[in-house]
Specification:
The structure is a homotrimer.
Chain A (H helix, E strand, L loop, with lengths): L5 H24 L4 E2 H22 L5 H4 L2 H19 L8 H21 L4 H22 L12 H17 L4 H21 L6 E2 L5
Helix pairs in contact in A: 1-2, 1-4, 1-5, 1-6, 2-4, 2-6, 5-6, 5-7, 5-8, 6-7, 7-8
Chain lengths: ~210, ~210, ~210
């Protein structure tokens, strides 16, 4: 990384992940009938929702209010996806890899923030999961759908295992940067393996509905 | 405004808007089967939800916790509407004009608060939209319905354009009061015109549900 | 209470109530098809959601971030219930009494915190209701169901009357401990009586769905 600091790299990756989540948020919400405002709202929820919940829980300045680049990137991605999806059928599969990378990045950033705020390790790993996963959950709640993360292949589990791996390695003395990239690798590998071989968590249906 | 300050006027309008939103919240939620507690919750969500989300995002004291007049007015309106609606069929149309006025007022107040907190202009306009629109969105999420604001005639769009108009005029040197009333005028005119001529945003249905 | 302080007692009751809510959260959400992550999320929402909303509204440190015992107890209860419910059909009735006790405890704790933060009495009683009731509401919103509390027997009403009874007795000079136990008694008695005789609030269906 000649001349580019790690912080600049993570910031750029964060903006890129916001763009991806903004786009997939529109595609997911678009399975229901929504208008342009609904699409932008779904994109913002998917992209910025997880970090917002994390910041509120930690009583931290909400990240996209201090720096509106995230907001502009997300809205631009949502609007472009909206008009592209009205013309062409965008296959959600296109986004599987970028989405896994976004999940990994958001999880690692969220976990680091939790550790910075001196939360206990389980809470810190949960901050990672919330940052990575709650955006999609909010998007589905707004679109009045059963959250996809409750049934998809090891989505939150991959995030949590990556967060725990990162925390453990940091405890063992590994540096901030190396443990972050290791955590991201764990998330991406588990998620892609789970999609490839259809690995899911055990599930429940009590049936007294 | 002889003898009445602008702040008193805005405060009075705010209470009036809370009453209107509390009433319409009950009517909207009542399309599902709800009990009196559900009605009060829906009324509170519709009336105070947008401002609450704004205050949480800005890390500002939640407005109805400092001054419980908003809460009392909203609950009174919700309870009265509940019992009236059990007897008579209240046409939702009755509330279209007061609702547009409430939207306008909440939007302008929310935008002003965003500006006071030194947020960037896009965030400030979003605070206006959130204050004006998120109450109805929360109400629909609680009642397990697809949010009306995702499909209705230029609801959030009217709010956003009013917020932007207000910010632009204030940048150009127009005073606080004049720009607020101009912003409200923009919201009301666009919203009523959109209802009259059934103007909606473009919409999307990807159909891979 | 020889040798055990009231604070220790309330803390222990709080953990116990978290366990009960974590378990019932899984059973309720399990009426839909959910995986283990969905079950844990539903358990956490049901158990910690009400207190979290209260702490955010009062700008108070979120209780389970400071002390992760609540989180661990809730997750353990959710995981155990998940695997038990996959084997056996756990009747929800089993939990009616513990659930009423949890509701009573959460309500009283929430109201006390509201009073400590010098909120007006109506807001303080609402903090009690939010602490007691919003967990179940969040759980149902996440599971894309109409909230049970909007139709069940005097659930929120019992909480509110208990909170008001506690506040009134404290105003009249009754001590902190005595008024807390009186408030809890009011909640439990009203809730159990309402279940026994199927007492519900009046309800509404406007029918213009």
């Amino acid at each position: 990384m000649h001349g580019i600091s790690v912080d600049t790299l993570l910031y750029g990756l964060g903006i890129a992940a916001s763009v991806v989540c903004g786009a997939t948020g529109v595609l997911e919400a678009g399975r229901k009938h929504i208008d342009l405002f609904g699409a932008i709202t779904a994109g913002i929820a998917a992209s910025l929702g997880g970090g917002t919940v994390r910041d509120l829980l930690l009583d931290r300045k909400v990240f996209w209010i201090a720096d509106q680049t995230y907001l502009i990137a997300t809205i631009a991605a949502a609007v472009m996806t909206f008009f592209l999806a009205r013309r062409w059928r965008l296959p959600a599969k296109l986004f599987l890899l970028p989405d896994a990378m976004g999940l990994a990045l958001f999880t690692v950033v969220g976990t680091q923030i939790g550790l910075q705020f001196q939360t206990p390790w389980l809470v810190a790993s949960l901050m990672g999961v919330i940052t990575g996963v709650f955006g999609g959950l909010l998007r589905d709640v707004l679109a009045n759908e059963m959250p996809l993360v409750f049934t998809s292949e090891l989505y939150a589990t991959a995030a949590w295992l990556g967060a725990v791996a990162m925390i453990v390695m940091q405890e063992l003395g590994l540096g901030y940067v190396a443990s972050s990239f290791l955590g991201m690798g764990v998330v991406i590998l588990i998620r892609l393996a789970a999609i490839r071989w259809h690995i899911t968590l055990p599930s429940l249906k009590t049936g007294n509905s």
